[in-house]
């Protein structure tokens, strides 16, 4: 199997506490993966390490066909290499229209001078409409982002990430604060996005994870406790003890 991202033997301590402990994780170029685990299992720290926000004490993080190490790259370089991260709280510009938000995202990524040189073209207009369609907001392009529901803001932000054409999308607790209908649409969206790229979803909501219908990695005390289908990991006595059974 081809691997897009390979994390191997990674550890990270904070004041002597091992938040990540000899963690290994790999994802294919086209794959949807859910990461679950109790509070403090290391899920956020794992994403911080992949995106360059936190430097591990040991281990490797390798990326792409050429297995380049990400460890020496800055957060901005890692984003440009093709890793997009969606934080839990949406951070869209509420006073701007959806089209303006998406325009900023199109301009943003590739170095500071791109913003200066960037001019709207017919192509960029088309791309903005495509991005809005892709996240189910095609009919709201000229509405202000502040008028969107919480779930719709999350989709807009995913659209803004897609503007940068990430090969790997990391999504932190998308279901939080969403209505049931929004959660259902979000699972559909994430599954569709993962048909052409790698998507890692960190989530506590087990119904949401079930609907993602993908391979699940269970983290516990900074290591992988179990991996496989949700049914497989749910039947694991260790997983039941530390997470699902509580
Ligand atoms: N910058 C930091 N300084 C000190 N301790 C930290 C830091 N970042 C994380 N930790 C600790 O590392 C452990 C793992 O935290 P992390 O946030 O990665 O877990 P998590 O699985 O994302 O939890 P949650 O589900 O609650 O978001 C926790 O015990 C946390 O307190």
Give an overview in words.
Residues 5-246 form the ABC transporter domain. With 246 residues, this protein is of the alpha/beta class. It has one domain: Rossmann fold, CATH 3.40.50. It contains 10 helices and 10 strands. A 6-stranded mixed beta sheet has the order 6-7-8-3-9-10, with helices on both faces. Helix 3 (98-107) crosses helix 5 (122-134), helix 3 (98-107) packs parallel to helix 6 (150-162) and helix 7 (180-193) packs parallel to helix 8. The protein is globular and about 50 Å long. It binds adenosine-5'-triphosphate. Residues 14, 19, 37, 39-45 line the site of adenosine-5'-triphosphate. Adenosine-5'-triphosphate (ATP) binds next to helix 1.
Summarize the entry for a quick read.
This protein is of the alpha/beta class and 246 residues long. It has helices spanning 43-50, 75-81, 98-107, 112-117, 122-134, 150-162, 180-193, 206-212, 230-234, 237-244, and strands at 5-14, 17-27, 31-36, 58-63, 68-69, 83-86, 168-172, 198-202, 215-220, 223-228. It has a single domain, classed as P-loop containing nucleotide triphosphate hydrolases (Rossmann fold, 3-Layer(aba) Sandwich).
What attributes does this structure have?
single chain; alpha/beta; Rossmann fold; globular; binds adenosine-5'-triphosphate
Topology:
Layout: E1 5-14, E2 17-27, E3 31-36, H1 43-50, E4 58-63, E5 68-69, H2 75-81, E6 83-86, H3 98-107, H4 112-117, H5 122-134, H6 150-162, E7 168-172, H7 180-193, E8 198-202, H8 206-212, E9 215-220, E10 223-228, H9 230-234, H10 237-244
Helix pairs in contact: 3-5, 3-6, 7-8
The chain binds adenosine-5'-triphosphate.
Domain ABC transporter: 5-246
Keywords: ATP-binding, Nucleotide-binding, Transport
Protein name: Urea ABC transporter ATP-binding protein UrtD
């Amino acid at each position: 199997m081809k691997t897009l991202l390979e994390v191997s033997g990674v550890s990270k301590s904070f004041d002597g506490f091992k938040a990540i402990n000899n963690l290994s994780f790999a994802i294919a170029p086209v794959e949807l993966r859910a990461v679950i685990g109790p509070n403090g299992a290391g899920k956020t720290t794992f994403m911080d390490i992949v995106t360059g926000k936190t430097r591990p004490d040991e281990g490797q993080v390798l990326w792409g066909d050429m297995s380049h190490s990400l460890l020496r790259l800055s957060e901005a370089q890692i984003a440009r290499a093709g890793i997009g991260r969606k934080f839990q709280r949406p951070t869209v510009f509420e006073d701007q229209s959806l089209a303006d938000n998406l325009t900023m995202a199109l301009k943003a990524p590739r170095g500071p001078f791109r913003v200066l040189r960037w001019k709207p073209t017919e192509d960029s207009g088309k791309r903005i409409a495509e991005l809005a369609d892709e996240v189910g907001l095609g009919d709201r392009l000229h509405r202000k982002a502040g008028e969107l529901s919480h779930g719709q803001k999350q989709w807009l932000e995913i659209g803004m990430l897609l503007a940068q054409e990430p090969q790997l999308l990391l999504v932190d607790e998308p279901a939080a604060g969403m209505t049931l209908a929004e959660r259902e649409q979000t699972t559909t969206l994430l599954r569709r996005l993962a048909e052409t790229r790698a998507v890692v979803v960190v989530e506590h909501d087990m119904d949401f994870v079930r609907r993602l219908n993908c391979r699940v990695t269970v983290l516990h005390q900074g290591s992988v406790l179990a991996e496989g289908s949700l049914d497989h990991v749910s039947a694991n006595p260790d997983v039941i003890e530390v997470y699902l059974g509580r």
